[in-house]
Amino acid sequence: MPLIEIKTIIHSDIQTCFDLSRNIDFHKDSMAHSNEKAIAGKTSGLIGLNEWVTWEAFHFGVKQKLTSKITAFDSPHYFVDEMVSGAFKSFKHEHIFVFEGGKTIMTDKFWFKSPFGVLGRLANNLFLKKYMTTLLKTRNQYLKDKAENC
Fold it and tell me: What Gene3D superfamilies does its record include (predicted)?
């Protein structure tokens, strides 16, 4: 199962970073390029433990739906969202926040498993891991910009 790990240093307080990261409305804004919108479950505001959201977005030119649920939560240091249904066979996304030296270090750990066996593993290596890394880095830069300018 591929792992993407990204560390982002943000010159802002930990609570701001944590709350932006779990804010449905902020997520919609940060993913505007894929026309992502929340269509079921928690569709606005801050998502918390055992809450779920279904997203609809365009990726690779195809409209897709994905439902994820918050399965672990320790404000303002940690939360996990896991796929319930969607295009992946599975995914788990850990969000880790540490405040150190006047800045927040935000770490994303994103594990995913593609469907379709060997073809899915080939897709991971050819383009999917790079695509997901770019998506996460884009979102993290958007979060960094917003948190540092609050």
Answer: 3.30.530.20
Distance CA(15)–CA(106), nearest Å, equals 11
Identify which of 34, 44, 42 has the alpha carbon closest to the alpha carbon of residue 136: 34
What residue has token string 């940690």?
78
Cα-atom radius of gyration of the chain, to the nearest Å? 15
Q: How many structural domains is the chain composed of?
A: 1
From the list 110, 93, 105, the residue with the least C-alpha distance to 144 is 105
Q: Provide the domain limits for residue 120.
A: 3-148
Report the CATH number that the domain containing residue 23 is assigned in CATH: 3.30.530.20
* Predicted TM-score of the model (pTM): 0.93
Question: What is the strand order of the sheet 3-10 is part of?
Answer: 3-10, 103-113, 90-100, 78-85, 62-74, 52-59, 37-41
Tokens of 50: 């055992």
